[in-house]
Specification:
Blueprint: H1 2-18, H2 26-29, H3 37-51, E1 54-56, E2 68-71, E3 80-87, E4 96-103, E5 109-117, E6 121-128, E7 143-149, E8 155-163, E9 166-176, E10 178-182, E11 191-198, E12 203-212, E13 215-223, E14 230-231, E15 238-244, E16 247-257, E17 262-270, E18 273-276, E19 309-316, E20 322-334, E21 340-349, E22 354-357, E23 366-373, E24 378-385, E25 401-406, H4 411-415, E26 420-425, E27 430-435, H5 447-453, E28 454-456
Antiparallel strand pairs: 1-3, 2-3, 3-4, 4-5, 6-7, 7-8, 8-9, 10-11, 11-12, 12-13, 14-16, 15-16, 16-17, 17-18, 19-20, 20-21, 21-22, 22-28, 23-24, 24-25, 25-27, 26-27
C-alpha cells in the first residue's frame, strides 16, 4: 500500500510539472504536493495496465522521454495523458503500448485509444501539426510521430492522428536513419524529411513526406553526397533557415562522415521538389562543405539567426610546419542557390572552449603554438608573426600575443600578473591575455579590441 501511495505522489509531481506548475520558493519546490483527484483517477487507470502485466517504457531519446506525458492533442483546452508501456508477456506480438487517456466532463480519465508496436523500444515521440486540421478551440491539433527502435541502427517511423476514440495512421511504418520535422514549404504545418542510408541497396537520400489526401505522401527525394559512410555522430540533422535576399528560407543541414572527414548537404524546397543546393552534379558531392576537421560543428557564429558551415584550414606553427592542432575557420553562409558567403573568420580553440575573430591583416600572417602548465591549471596559446618566405638568419621567433585559460585556486593572481589582462571571467575559469612588445610585429589590436574579438564557444 505504501508503494502505491509513493507511486501516486511521484506521478502527481511529474504530471503537475508537465502541466505547467510553478513554485515561488525552494521550500515549496521540495514540498510533497497533494495529488489532485483527477490525477488519482489517472493513476488508477495506469495501475490497471501495470497490474495486467505491463511496465513503464518511456521513449529513449528526444525532448519527450517521460513515461507519462500531458499534451492537448485535439486542442480542446483539456490535456490528454499519454502513457508508455511494455507488455511483460513474451506471447504479446506487439509488446509496446502507447495509451491515450482522455479527460471526461466529470474530470476523470478514460482510455481513448491504444497504439501498439512490435519493437524492443520506442526511440522517440514528437507532437506536431502535420495535417493542418484544427481542434474545437480553433488551434491546430497535434499528431503523434513515433520512432520505433528495432536496433542501434534500425528505426521505423509512423505518424498517427488521434480523432476522438479513433486512431488514424497518417504514415505507415517507414525505415529510416534519421528524420527532421520542419515546415519546408511554409504552409504553417510540419513536413517529415527522412534521411536514409541503406548500404545494402546503395540508397543515400533525403525523402520529403507531406500531408495530401489524408496521408503523409512521399512527394520528392534528393540525393546525399556519395561516398558517405554514415551520419556524423556529433551533429544531428539541423532544421533552420538560409538567408536569401532578406527572406528566411527553410532548410535542413545534414552532416555525414566520409573516410577522410565530414561533409554537409543542405536541402531546401524549391518549385515543388526537394533540392540539395550544395551538391556538385559533376562529382556527386557537396565539395564546398567538405572538411578534414570533424570536431567543429555548424553554428550561428555571428548570432544573426542563420547557421554557418565551417571551412577549417590548418594553421602553421612557428617552425612553418602545418599543424592539425590549430585551425583557422571561415564560416560560410549559404543562399538558396547554394552560393557561400564568408561572414566571419576565426581561430577556433575547441579544446579550451573559446574562439577569436581574426582581423583581416592577421589572416595568413600568424602561426601558433601551445604553452601549457597543467599542474598549475594554465593552458596557453601563443600567436607569432609568420611569413611563408624563409627569413634571414636563425633568429628564434617571438610571440606577439598569448591567450590563457586559467583554472585553480590562484587563477586571479595569475590573471593579473605583470603584463596580463582579463578577457573574460566565469565562476571557475578566467581567460586572460598578454601582448609581447619584443616580437617586432604590430598586430594592430589593443586590449579593448582583443576583448571584442574574444568569444566563448
Amino acid at each position: 500500500m505504501r508503494k502505491k501511495w509513493i507511486g501516486a505522489v511521484i506521478l502527481s509531481v511529474v504530471l503537475l510539472c508537465l502541466g505547467g506548475c510553478a513554485f515561488s520558493s525552494p521550500e515549496e519546490l521540495y514540498a510533497v504536493p497533494k495529488a489532485a483527484e483527477d490525477y488519482r483517477n489517472l493513476q488508477e487507470q495506469i495501475d490497471k495496465v501495470r497490474s495486467a502485466g505491463a511496465e513503464y517504457a518511456g521513449p529513449l531519446f528526444g525532448t519527450n522521454t517521460q513515461p507519462v506525458q500531458l499534451m492537448d492533442l485535439d486542442e480542446d483546452g483539456v490535456q490528454e495523458a499519454i502513457a508508455f508501456f511494455r507488455a511483460t508477456s513474451a506471447e504479446d506480438p506487439d509488446p509496446l503500448k502507447i495509451y491515450i487517456y482522455h479527460q471526461t466532463a466529470d474530470g476523470t480519465y478514460e482510455v481513448w485509444n491504444i497504439i501498439e508496436g512490435d519493437a524492443p523500444a520506442i526511440n522517440s515521440i514528437s507532437y506536431e501539426d502535420l495535417d493542418g486540421k484544427t481542434g474545437p478551440s480553433g488551434h491546430m491539433d497535434k499528431e503523434l510521430v513515433v520512432s520505433w527502435r528495432l536496433s542501434d541502427k534500425i528505426y521505423r517511423l509512423e505518424a498517427f492522428s488521434i480523432t476522438g476514440p479513433e486512431v488514424e495512421t497518417l504514415l505507415p511504418a517507414v525505415s529510416y536513419t534519421d528524420y527532421v520535422l520542419w515546415d519546408m514549404d511554409k504552409d504553417n504545418q510540419k513536413e517529415i524529411v527522412m534521411i536514409t542510408l541503406n548500404t545494402v541497396d546503395s540508397v543515400y537520400q533525403a525523402d520529403y513526406y507531406d500531408y495530401q489526401s489524408g496521408q503523409m505522401m512521399l512527394r520528392s527525394s534528393a540525393p546525399l553526397s556519395g561516398k558517405i559512410t554514415g551520419l556524423a555522430s556529433n551533429t544531428k540533422p539541423l532544421a533552420s533557415y538560409l538567408y536569401n535576399n532578406g527572406i528566411a528560407e527553410p532548410a535542413i543541414f545534414v552532416t555525414s562522415n566520409l573516410i577522410t572527414g565530414i561533409i554537409t548537404d543542405i536541402f531546401t524546397w524549391q518549385k515543388d521538389k526537394l533540392v540539395n543546393i550544395t551538391l556538385n552534379p559533376s562529382t556527386g558531392m557537396s565539395d564546398d562543405t567538405f572538411r578534414l576537421n570533424t570536431s567543429i560543428s555548424i553554428q550561428d557564429i555571428n548570432n544573426d539567426g542563420y547557421p554557418e558551415v565551417p571551412r577549417p584550414t590548418a594553421l602553421p606553427t612557428p617552425d612553418a610546419v602545418s599543424s592539425l592542432d590549430f585551425w583557422q575557420v571561415e564560416w560560410m553562409q549559404y543562399d538558396l542557390k547554394g552560393n557561400p558567403t564568408v561572414v566571419s573568420t576565426t581561430y577556433y580553440n575547441g579544446e579550451d572552449g573559446w574562439y577569436l575573430a581574426m582581423p583581416e591583416r592577421w589572416q595568413g600572417q600568424v602561426a601558433l603554438s601551445r604553452l601549457d602548465n597543467t599542474s598549475s591549471g594554465e593552458r596557453g596559446v601563443l600567436f607569432y608573426p609568420y611569413s611563408a618566405e624563409p627569413s634571414e638568419g636563425n633568429a628564434t621567433p617571438r610571440p606577439f600575443l598569448s591567450i590563457y585559460k586559467l583554472t585553480g585556486p590562484n587563477r586571479k593572481t595569475r590573471a593579473n600578473a605583470e603584463g596580463r589582462f582579463v578577457l573574460l571571467e566565469e565562476d571557475d575559469v578566467i581567460y586572460a591575455a598578454e601582448f609581447h612588445t619584443d616580437s617586432g610585429w604590430d598586430c594592430g589590436v589593443d586590449q579593448e579590441g582583443l576583448k571584442a574579438l574574444f568569444h566563448l564557444i
